[in-house]
């Protein structure tokens, strides 16, 4: 196994520990904790799929294509976690199924390319660029664009929450959601840079590093931030979302969104 595979495998072990710890928290906003546990579990499956891809075990199996497609669930799940932490009584419903459409389409494209390879071949000679590389570039652009969009929506949701309770992100006594705001901002920053890199890959011959390294870095960054917050402020995972004291009791519209300093 090369260093990339070792890092991915060790990150999967950390993810398993995080899922176990977060899912078993008693009391508090258990629904939000379960959404977060699902997010970490799905990202762990993605990281596990990188192990054979970056080692001597590399094989183009259909299951690897499916687990690679899980990256398209990162944005929706992170956004759902933010909503669960800031909106009292939030539950995922049928209307939220629209968020998994990109994932389903990517699975369909990936399996079609595996079972029907002629769908991605070309008769142009000499080829100027391999069709498979072009498909991967397109997927990378769409992925980072969607992740940036969901990150922006998450930031907006946190700003609305801050404005509605008229405080510094606190959702319970002594518990601040600023850590979550920082996590989302890190995600947006990395995703935006990833989008620029994906565009550079697509329209130039520049190869920055092996594929999958950047998305793996994103997941590891989020893991360690969650783990750090769990150690320094463990009560955040046992917190419940407080109702907006003024907005919940008034028929007046919520105050305008204020930018976060």
UniProtKB/TrEMBL annotation:
For this UniProt record, the keywords arranged alphabetically read as follows: Membrane, Transmembrane, Transmembrane helix
Superkingdom, taxonomy of origin = Bacteria
Q: Does the keyword Membrane apply?
A: yes
Keyword Glycoprotein present in the record's keywords: the answer is: no
Transmembrane portions of the chain:
6-23, 35-57, 63-82, 94-116, 141-158, 179-200, 212-231
UniProt name for this protein: Histidine kinase N-terminal 7TM region domain-containing protein
Organism lineage reads as: Bacteria, Pseudomonadati, Pseudomonadota, Gammaproteobacteria, Cellvibrionales
